[in-house]
Amino acid sequence: MPQYSQFQPKPYERPMSPFWYFDRWPYLKFILRESSSFFVAYFAVVILIHICAISSGPSSYAAFSAWMRTPTMITVNLIAFVFVVFHTVTWFMLVPRVMVRQVMGRSLPEMAAAAPNYAVWAVLSIAVALFALRVI
Amino acid sequence: MVDQRSNRPLPWLLFGIGGFLTAFFFPIHIFLYGIALPLEWLPDPGYRSTLELVHLPLTRIYLGVLLILAFWHAFYRIRDTICDAFDVRPLDVPIAALCYAGAIAGTIATVVILILVP
Predict the structure, then answer these.
(1) How many domains are there within chain B?
(2) Domain spanning A20-92: which CATH class is it, in words?
(3) Is residue B3 part of a domain?
(4) How far is A113 from chain B (nearest CA, A)?
(5) Exposure string (b/e) for A84-103, b if CB count within 10 Å is 16 or more?
(6) Model ipTM?
(7) Which residue of A lies nearest to B84 if distances are taken between CA atoms?
(8) Which residues of B touch A19 (CB under 8 A)?
(9) How far is A52 from chain B (nearest CA, A)?
(10) How confident is the model at residue A100 (pLDDT cuts 50, 70, 90)?
(11) Which residues of chain A lie closer than 8 angstroms to B87, CB-CB?
(12) Burial category of B85 from C-beta neighbours within 10 Å (exposed 0-12, middle 13-18, buried 19 and up)
């Protein structure tokens, strides 16, 4: 059991605004990046609903497609797309932070270290699109 | 401060792998099924063709791995986002419990839905 003195020193806590993330751009960037997780979870659920609709037959698939064509869904998906791309870019830019970037005694620029990610991203996106559109 | 080992490394591993998978694959999924196909920018392959695609074991394995790790990635981050954005770190334990429950629910739903594809 810890022994408490009569006047236990309390650590000073700086008062924090509930909207602290509007104070500085890096804070806002941080909270926007972290918020991308809501959109990842949202679209994972949409994909599950899509698979359910495919499993249930042509009529529920048509209903799902009609739902995806509503302006609300397109707007939400556009916002989700922007957030997820922000997640992708910030995630790729982590690579130069965690990787040793010494090439022949010189340090590699951040973009050069992250570049292979973008190439892989492009190739995988095209592959998924070709499969999804049944081109291959 | 209570000296305690963190139990975070395991979920962090799922968060990390899920972070890579969502970074690589989610933008194209949202673009195709959320924007391009509904707006008819691209030709819709139609119901039968899409069913055949989802029927393939490889597609289901891909979707299973992608979605399960996406759920773990998202809920790991949602927990910290809620704690930080609303400054409610003292409520971390119930928030973490809810978030992990969400990730487990997402995992079970993904497995069941993918097994039930005809």
Answers:
(1) 1
(2) mainly alpha
(3) no
(4) 16
(5) bbbbbbbbbeeebeeeeeee
(6) 0.92
(7) A31
(8) none
(9) 7
(10) low
(11) 16, 18, 20
(12) middle
